[in-house]
Amino acid sequence: MFSTFRFVIAILVIALYTLPLMVVQEIALRTPLLSDRIVPRLWHRLTLRMLGVRVRMEGSPAKDRPLMIVANHVSWLDILVLGSLDGVHFIAKSEMRKWPILGTFARQQRSVFVERERRRSSPEQAREIAERLADGDPMVLFAEGTTGDGNRVLPFKSTLFGAAQLALASDRADSVTLQPVALIYVRKGGLRLDRRERAAISWIGDTDLLPNLITLWHSRPIDIAVRYGDPIPFLAKGDRKTVTREAEAQVRAMLTAGLRGTEI
């Protein structure tokens, strides 16, 4: 009963600071007075703290631009986790537009919404991502195309990696840097997660957001490690499928190492 009461209070507090921050972000998007990357990062950090999620960064994000961060995907929490660490923008599924709060913030964070099931729209979507990369915006791609159970990496889809090559057509860069990142769900309540527990707090398939949020709340504190891999230069004449496999191999190796007991 007390835990439920605290959950309701936490959601109310999040709602209280979300509205004014959205207003500030709209001002940042419409005027040059404020960077449009500050408010989303602040909101992500505040919300992770309210939900009892602790993040540990291992390694460092590449400073090179254009930059595409290529990560595995476990939960909607991944967006808050990566958004709390750096001024990044997301390549998100189109359904996210309709999500309460997160959908609005995704739009305000200038996410690119893609329809992965519609292959005919892929070239147009790739061009939009390419333009953002060429402008210097670091973009996050969840390359599996869906969420997994946190215990393994699903095969990476190479389609949107083509955006990296298109970015080079602008002649504003000689190469695009791809940086593999592994999101590792390590502990809940101070104890290491086993495979079943990790799968239970992941967000797979058509699971509704609220039940998953409640599960995460009862699992707090949750410790998540973010491991940055070695940057991969992607040249104009590079092979899309080759760099996709290289990025996938790095993420898989980092996830496996983290799950085998490497301390964070």
Automatic annotation (TrEMBL):
It comes from Nitratireductor aquimarinus. SUPFAM superfamilies: Glycerol-3-phosphate (1)-acyltransferase (SSF69593). InterPro entries: Plipid/glycerol_acylTrfase. This is 1-acyl-sn-glycerol-3-phosphate acyltransferase. Residues 67-186 form the Phospholipid/glycerol acyltransferase domain. GO terms for molecular function: acyltransferase activity. The keyword Transport does not apply. It holds the Pfam family Acyltransferase. Keywords: Acyltransferase, Lipid biosynthesis, Lipid metabolism, Transferase. Pathway: Lipid metabolism. The keyword Cell cycle does not apply.
